[in-house]
Fold each of these.
Amino acid sequence: MRVGFLAAEWQHNNGWAHYSTSLIQALQRQGIETQIITPRNTPLTELQSLHPLLPTVTPPDKHTLAQMAVQFSRIRSLLADCDIVHCTVEIYAPLAAAIATKRPLFTTIHGSYAHLPRIRRFPINRLYQWAFRQATLLCVSHYTEKVIQKIVPDSRTIVVNNGIDIERFAHLPVLENPPTRPTVITSGGVKARKGTLELVKAMAKVRGVLPDVQCIVMGSTSAEAHYVATVQQTIAELDLGDCVRLLGFVDENTLLAWYGAADVFVLPSMNNTWKFEGFGLATLEASAAGLPVIGTADCGAEDAIDHNRTGLLVNQANIDDELPQAIIHLLTDTADAKKMGQAGKEKAANQTWDFVADQMISVYKTQN
């Protein structure tokens, strides 16, 4: 079996890239032959089957469809010998559909960009509707599947959850100065979709019960400048300067060390206009590190968290009350927190990228 991919960058610096690289490497380990078309900003590599020809998506290029059209003939030629075409970035779906012709076509739907047939202007929106209908849509969560089925009602969908590299969490590094106070962490950047503001407000209530609590927020502070300013202002207004710390982007070693040092991981994802959490991979990674986790219902976290087993799901509509209560519970009921952390570790151990690759191969064969 030879699979041609229209993928993100061959690295792990964003969600699309991490998914594309992790999945393709796992498939290669299973003996699947691959031909990989990636964005022009892909780092140099010795991988001969990788061709950086696509417009960039992080950061987004202008006139993406026109740029794809320019490269159409060359990419079609490179994928001519492939039995299957798999598009792992929703933006490239029209190109994948045009190239696949009668071959089996798969497009991964991660989350917010399921809305492309709605948010793009006519006639581009119709082009994405057509492209999604040509493919079997591989949804990373049941919530993502529910969203795409509403947008493209006659689409063919299959759920294949994201995976993790379990070895990353086998031996967690130790912080140079480990915390001596109850510690909540989150990652993924300061963004409305990540619920950073809701977490900050919740910490004010948690501090009323646990005065020495701290919250460590990791991830980019540059994606949504106005929102970041609001978060910083709220921290100041609530006098949380000694409680909530925005670390910004941290390296891998620091991130893993905080996973090992924290008591609870919280990702209170919020549906924000057309944007939503497709899966919440950071939550499953926290489970792999043995942490009890908290997320929100009505998003992809419903697949990443087993409510009352590996962590807690709170309602977005009632987050102001439920989130601080959930954090306080896991910080004070250490027995329940430990039990959830262990259950989460077991869940994560069964959701490796190799397991995802096995599922994907079965899907390929079924639809071929």
Note: Residues 334-349 form the longest helix (16 residues).
Amino acid sequence: MLFLLLTACTSTDGGDAFNAGSGRYDAPGWGDTSEDTAEGGDTSEHDPDGDPGAPIFTDVSGKWSDYPDAGVVLVVTATYTDEGDDIDGGTCYIDATFNGEDANFDTTVGSSDGDGCKAVEGSFIFAIQELDDSLTTLVEFQVKDSSGNVSKLESVEVAAQ
């Protein structure tokens, strides 16, 4: 099984926080153009079901797991389909919320060893270390594939141990 660990770092500026109205799709860096964010504000309309051709995630789950040399980590897994078969090389946007704090990550989606979200033959996985497993944690993520199609916002709440 391929596995990665993202080290948690809390964000206090809210710059990478999810946009409450439509997910992080509308946040800077999510592929918006200068034309749709000029003076009048963001005019992009994100499909709540994800862009056509974007990866589709099912069976999303999360749990705390104890791994040798890493300690207790929060692991998120899912099954995915990708019509364009272009999830590899995309970007995974992850927010973890716990006890009023946020940890935010933008990482590469890959199918080989190294840091990032792993997507191999319909299985998707990432793990976050250095979180407090005594706190219930909400994890939200979206994936922008290498063609720029953004998936639906997915979320999973992992109960405290």
Note: The chain has a mean pLDDT of 79.
